[in-house]
Amino acid sequence: MVPYQLFSHISFDACESSSLDIARKTATCAKLNVKFATTFQTPSAIMGDFRAKDVGFRAQKKLLSRMATKGIAKVFIDDATASLLDNLHRLARAHATKKEADKVIKNIIKIVIKIGILYRNDQFNAEELRTADHFRRKFHSTAMAIVSFHEVEFSYDRPFLLCALGECGALLRSLVQRHLTDKSLGRVECVFGFFSRPALLDATFGRAAPHAPLLARIVQDMHTLMEEGAL
């Protein structure tokens, strides 16, 4: 349930200092334990060349990932998307423990931020951009199905939704696998795995579903994002 174009709504004005400034601030922040060279390798790093832009790029990914919270999301992501994240958190919390719900939403935020940074820094090649477009179209059709399942009585189709979410997850992994660590790819698995739980789907979409009021709020957020062209 994460819009592909979320990362197009990320504002980086709050961290628009120069790449060298970012690198210096990151290097002095010992508690973050930022290890650029071993975590995010670039061709220039492999060749031993220093480029402040590359260091700043890696610093952005690391720092913003470490700061991933719903509060940070509201700084870097627009209001409609932040509202969707809040309501997804309420849905997750209704189905799971607070710890697990927090983890799922933080993983969404980390994924969105990292993809936004990759996109903003032109890191995707032509094939990956085609994959991104495929993901966008598939996610849009899945979102439309979610809206329909809520608004049209007795239309809920669990096998269809499970298949659609699985395809969205596979496309997203294909998009980022060249750029992100196994740990980050695991976050993609975590998010789509959580929202693909049959018990959660049935409690959200089924007849007399206990989570129906939360779904109504999520669908309203989706309508807002669709009107803005972001979903």
What's the topology here?
Layout: H1 19-28, H2 36-39, H3 43-46, H4 52-66, H5 70-76, H6 79-95, H7 98-120, H8 126-151, H9 158-176, H10 182-195, H11 198-205, H12 212-227
Note poorly predicted spans.
2-48
Strand content: under 5%
How many strands? 0
- Helix/strand class: mainly alpha
The tally of helices reads 12
Shape, please?
globular
Report the oligomer. Answer: single chain
Largest sheet: none
Mean pLDDT rating:
77
Radius of gyration: 18 Å
Order of helices and strands: HHHHHHHHHHHH
Percent in helix: over 70%
Span between termini? 10 Å
GO cellular component, one term: cytoplasm
Protein name: Tumor necrosis factor alpha-induced protein 8-like protein
Organism: Oedothorax gibbosus
Q: How would you describe this structure to a colleague?
A:
With 231 residues, the protein is mainly alpha-helical. It contains twelve helices and no strands. The chain has helices at residues 19-28, 36-39, 43-46, 52-66, 70-76, 79-95, 98-120, 126-151, 158-176, 182-195, 198-205, 212-227. Helix 4 (52-66) packs antiparallel against helix 7 (98-120). It is globular, with a radius of gyration of 18 Å. One of its GO terms (biological process) is regulation of apoptotic process. It comes from Oedothorax gibbosus. Pfam families: TNFAIP8.
Write a concise synopsis of the structure shown:
With 231 residues, the chain is mostly helical. 71% of the residues lie in helices and 0% in strands. It holds the Pfam family TNFAIP8.
